Amino acid sequence: MDAATHVPSVDSTDSDTRMSPGGPGYRRMSLALFLAGVATFALLYSTQALLPLISGEFGVEASEASWTVAAATGGLALCVLPMSALSERFGRRAVMTASLAVAVTVGMLVPFAPSIGVLVALRALQGAALAGLPASAQAYLAEEVRPKALVTAIGLFVAGNSVGGMSGRVITGWVAQEWGWRVSVGVIGVIAVACAVAFRLLLPAPKHFRAGSLRPRVLLGTVRDHLADPLLRRLYAIGALFMTVFGGVYTVIGYRLTGAPFGLPQGIIGSIFLVYLVGTVSASTVGRLVGRLGRRGALYLAGGTTAAGLLLSVAPSLPLVLLGLVLITAGFFAGHAVASSAVSKTAAHGRAQASALYQSAYYIGSSVGSTVGATAFRADGWGGTVAVGLLAVAGVVTITVLGTRAARVAAQRSLVANAH
User: Fold this and answer.
1) C-alpha distances in Å from residue 306, one per residue of 254, 299, 388
2) Comparing 410 with 121, which gets the higher pLDDT?
């Protein structure tokens, strides 16, 4: 069977053996992918809270230091589609395991980078290695978890992302304050090794995966099919725009808080990232939110929450800045969980490729947000970064409005067709 045409079986017997909350293997699977999410985000953004220190050591501006983040997310964005194709041939668990193994190995080399150029190159390689995780994880869940539990399961994986992002930044902040940024990223590497080992030991063997071949023509055909789907295109754009906001804000926030009027030390700035816990909650409860408001209603709420946080963060008051970060984080993780789970449910075939395209768009958004947000900060301060974020949120709302109209038109056409 070709990679692009593989569709997990959906007969009643197959459905009965898929995992569901409370069933065999579900807790092990949830914990394994949670830990994979922790390792992925901890490694991917390990330098983000340390950018002021990296700027100081290498004598570079924020816009240059931000490439240690953008290179990692860009490497992931470029490689996620090819890695998803490998997962169709060699299996989701095998690709995720190999990706984590390479990424943690590179992570142990990062502290020894002799120059900003070498550091950026290592980070790009690390991001490329991590590309096997996101799309393979979502495809694994789509195949091994019952459809009704899919949003919740993906929400837990995204929650692991938020914990990884938070713990990585908090740990690096305090360790760097005492021993420098090199030791702090080394500590993150050791933590990621532990998560990778636990992931491999815990993740249940797949029962519903069927290997496909690696025919480039078929793969490209599947990609074209997904890009031709208006709903998938909208979801990809929404993921990219939400991540543009998030990447810009969290790349620049360290520079803002070390400067006037705040002047916070590195350890305190690292602790600011405890607001990621809000993302953990919002991502893990998104299934109930979609149940109450629908997918588009949840996206409107996520966009509005993010915009409110951006506006609050402009105030020269630390409590208001923190509240703004809380709202930005909650809105982002909710929007990301809604959009990513919708991709898995929408794709009728080639789910790994559909998820990979979403992840590619998502991490391109992160790279754009990191570089454009840092450039705007250099040109116009925090207000410039906020302006970039508000434009991205406006894009999310516009796309969602267009999707709502398209759904109404399709429903009306269906009624007319049924009437005749």
Assistant:
1) 19, 10, 13
2) 121
